[in-house]
Every structure is written in structure tokens, then in C-alpha cells.
Amino acid sequence: MKTLKKQIGELGIREGTSLFVHSSLKAIGSDVKAEELIAALQSSVGKEGTLLFPTFSSRKEDYFDPDTTPSVLGVVTEIFRTMPGTLRSRNPRHPVAARGPAAQILIEDHEHAIGPCGSGTPFEKHARSDGQILLIGVDFDTLTLLHTAEALLDLPYLHVVEGKYLDSDGNVQHISMHQVPGGHRGGVRLFEKEFRKRGLIRYGQAGDARTMLMDAGKILDVMIELLQANPAAALCKGDYCPDCTNFKAKIRARQLSDLGTEVSIILSELPDDPDLFKEMIRRFCGHARFGLLSDLNIVRVPKGKKTPAPPDHMHSWILQPAPVDLMKYESLPPGYNGFAYAPLEAARAGIQPFYDVLYKSKCRDSITDIFIEDGLSNLSGMNSPAINYIHMFCGNGRVALGDGHAQLREIISALRMRNFTGRYHLIIPEGNLFIETLSILKEFWNLIP
Ligand SMILES: [Zn+2]
Q: Is 270 helix (H, G, I), strand (E, B) or coil?
């Protein structure tokens, strides 16, 4: 049988590199000692190389002292931390221990970085200085570098946490740390698939444990790319994980504020338990107004009827003419603050909701309120005997948002380009208010980028 030293020597660790190690001694085998593992790793990086281990604290101490606060990440990290010549950074949550020529430069100023894992931390500096990462018998859920990617993108689900540490003069310092990770990340195992696809993992063996060796900078870039494309990529896909559900709500709330729009939920009746209903919405997108259509300050004018003056000057009133009349407006009538527009109603009147109203008409820049509802209509050219069978599946004419004739996808995309700062009113069909609202919210979020 090969010795551990020989196995480690064959993993592909570059001599002179900075090697960040996440390991499980138990996974390697019961007869292996922590000192033996550290010595084998040390010999692989050589005299010019630097070893790094995470040595996170329990956070239960009054303050973090790099010299005495133990690492809670297992015996290897604790032995490494207490070896002569090992340095340790002063961030009270995610301290890193390092040994070797690059140790000082990698760990210094960790306590002054904006957060424990992002810019200016040992994790980021190590990745940006051509370092390697080695996972020994542990999975990607131990990879702190994920939180570096999250922090560099300033994802909305990161927290602010207070902490205390002992500075080099022996004084206790108090800091507010931003971009602090915490909570579950059920989607992170899928990242391995992506790294493997791009040939970024070198697999190996140490004792009984599987090892994965990677270039930190390259996998950091891939994680940034994946999280940029989908900020929820590291989170659980389902709706039942409490942490990931809350985090997704924060991402959606940030999306809305980035878009500069608001969402309002229009119910046919008020819920019996409004607080519970509000809580459900909060867990989906942070916040949204909800109520009855009649609660909105909208004056609805039937087709062909004259525009009345707004009812009072106490409120800001929105005018909702029939779509065929709306198209003819050159500007807003006096006293009104905007037009409300129902694309599905336009489709039902035989008007193309996007092209005729939001593309061609002069009224388009004054539209502030959009009713989000979808369905099938008699829009010319849209229905044919060949697709009429669809009516058999949706007797009430309701289809998922974006699938029907309201052209919601085009409308939302065009409004986004135009920096629309109005409101989207989601019309909730009759039925179980909770189920219907959640399903419409999900459909709506499928439409927004
Ligand atoms: Zn989760």
C-alpha cells in the first residue's frame, strides 16, 4: 500500500504554491495522524509553498483571540494552528491559519476587510494569487470560497454581524462585518458538476478519502459566473427549506428594487387571516401591497365614454380607458397621474397588446399601472382551429402568465428597457387565495429577468 505521503505527492499539488486545505481526518482513515497529513502536504508544496487551513471560531467566546481561541473545524486545523511558525488572521468569524513565505501577506488585514470572506480576505487573496484548493474527504459544502463569490457579488441574502477580536496591541476591538454568510446552501453540490464539465477538478485519493484539487482562481471565476446568471444558484431549488426560501425572497426583493417597480396583488376577496397572507408574500418577495381592485385609485372608463375629471385632489388618480380608447390619447388628461393598462383586455378587444399600445401609441410613456393577467382571446391571427383544442384544457381561458395572448413577456421586457417605474398588479384568480397567489407570483417571476 502506498504511504499517505506518496499519495499526496501524486495529487498534482504544485511546488511553491499556496495550498488551501479543507479536510476530514476521519475520512482518510483511523490510523492517520493529523501531524502526518500536515507533513505530507508541507512536503508537497515545498519550502517555497504556503499551507492554509480554515480555523473558524465557535463564536461563543467574549472576543476572538487568534492565539488562544480554538478552531472548531477539527483536529487537523487545531494542530496546524498551534504549530510553531503558523500565523492566524484576526477576523473573529472566519479566521485562517497559514504557514510559509506567503502566510503574512495572505492573512494580514483580514479584520479590516468589509466582510469575512470577500474582497481583501485571505480567501480572495489566495484565489487571486494563483493558489490551489484541496478537498480531502469533504464535499463542496465546506468550500468557503463560495462565500467569497457571493460576497464579491454582494448578494442580498448575506448578513451583517457584529464581532470582537483582540488586536496586535492586546486591545479588544469591535467590528461590524458585512456580507457574512450563514444558513443553508442546498444547490452548491451542483457546482461540482459544472467544475468537472470544465475540467477544473483533479480527482485523487488520500488514504480512504477522495480528494479534489482545483485552481482557486478558476473556480472562483466560475462561481461568480454561475451566481451572476442566477443569484439563487447556490440555494435549494424547492420551496420548503426555510433558509433558502428566505434568501430567495431577498433576491426577488432586490430584483424589484433594481427594476424600479412595485408589485401589487389584486384579490377578489380579502383573506380571512391577512397577517398570514402577508407573511406568505414576505417569504416570497419581501413585500408587496395586496387588496381589492376597488382599493386602487383608478378611474375606469368604459369604451367610447367621455373621460371624467378625477374624483378629488386628495389622491393621485390613475385613468384606465378601454384599450381601444387608450391608444388614441396623445397625453394624460389634466388631474391624472398615469394610465392603467390591461393587456389581456386589449387582446380580447382584438388589439395587439404590445405592438399597438406599448410600441406604436403616444400614450405609452404615460402608462404607470399594468394589470398582469393572461389568457386566450380572439386576437386576430392568434386563434386557429388547430389550436382551439387548448380551450378544452382551460375552460375559463386562463393560461400561465406568458403563455397566452396578453404578450406579457414582450411587454415586461420592453418596459424594463424603458426603465418603467410603475406598478405591476397581479390579478389573482378565484379559488384558494394562498395557492393561487403563490402560483401567480411564481409565474410572474418567470417573466422578469
Ligand atoms: Zn436550503
A: coil
Rounded distance between C-alpha atoms, residue 410 and residue 346, angstroms: 14
CA dist 55 and 71 (Å) reads: 5
Phi, psi of 17 (to 5 degrees): -80, 170
Task: Report CA(227)–ligand 1 centroid distance (Å).
Answer: 16
- The total of other beta-carbon atoms located within 10 Å of residue 99's CB is 21
pLDDT band at 393 (very low <50, low <70, confident <90, very high): low
Distance 248 CA to ligand 1 centre (A): 10
Q: Give, in order, the Cα–Cα distances in Å from 136 to each of 139, 190, 218.
A: 8, 18, 19
| C-alpha 371 – ligand 1 centre gap (Å) | 33
pLDDT tens-digit map of 169-196: 999 999 999 999 999 999 888 899 999 9
The letter for the amino acid at 369 is: D
CA distance 261 to 89: 43
The phi-psi region of residue 381 (left if phi > 0; otherwise alpha if psi is between -120 and 50; otherwise beta) is left
User: What distance in angstroms lies between residue 27's CA and the mean position of ligand 1's atoms?
Assistant: 25
Per-residue DSSP letter, 230: -
**Mean pLDDT value of segment 215-243:** 95
Distance of CA 268 from the midpoint of ligand 1 (Å): 33
Residue 142 corresponds to which cell in the numbers above?
465546506
User: Beta 132-136 vs 18-23: how paired, if at all?
Assistant: parallel
pLDDT score of 380: 67
Is 133 in contact with 216 (CB distance < 8 Å)?
A: yes
Average pLDDT, the chain: 93
pLDDT level of residue 375 (50, 70, 90 thresholds): confident
- Name the pairing type of β-strands 96-99 and 50-54: antiparallel
Give the C-alpha separation, 438 to 245, whole Å.
13
The Å distance, Cα 124 to ligand 1 centre, comes to 25
**Å from CA of 209 to ligand 1 middle:** 26
Dist. CA 287 → ligand 1 center (Å): 21
Q: Distance, CA 244 to ligand 1 centroid (Å)?
A: 4
Return the minimum-mean-pLDDT range out of 125-129, 215-219, 313-317: 313-317
Q: Which amino acid is at 156?
A: P
- Please provide the distance, in angstroms rounded to a whole number, between the alpha carbons at the two ends of the chain: 55
Amino acid found at 89: S
Q: How far is the CA of 145 from the centre of ligand 1 (A)?
A: 18
Distance in angstroms (rounded) separating the CA atoms of residues 12 and 47? 17
